[in-house]
Amino acid sequence: MEFKDVVRMRRSVRKFTEEPVTEEQLAALLEAAMAAPSAGNAQPWRFIVVDDKDTLAAVPAIHPYAAMAASAPLAVLVCGDLSAEKYPGFWVQDCAAAVQNMLLAAVDAGLGAVWTGIYPEQERVRQFSATFGLPEHVVPLALVVAGHAAKTPAPGGRFDAAKVRRNRW
Known about the structure:
alpha+beta; NADH Oxidase; four-stranded antiparallel β-sheet; oxidoreductase; Nitroreductase-like; Nitroreductase/BluB
């Protein structure tokens, strides 16, 4: 698949089949995430792969927009390790780039995925930190829920020339 097709095919998928995500597909997601750029090449991302059904079923109680986790085969909790930062505060951008790479890799691997935000909602941060036993210096940014899409969303085109300026506002 060409890159432009991967970008156009990426959609937020919230309904999954029961087919499991293979170890090869998971590896492709994580490798893509870790290929993201980061400030000072600090690579402050940390990942928790969640495939335990009971844990996935508990997610909707702590995240109002992650109900699909309960019926998904897999989720990846993407966190920033503040102790690994070279430039404080850039962990959010670094980890967001990793999430975007993961979402694009999901399309390429024949999967669907959705980015569910955690940070900066402090109650979500607190609950995910407690649920997953995160140390204080590790902050959850997002939960990427993934699996085989129950239906394939149509490719999109969202280009809007009215949102582009050249040289100045």
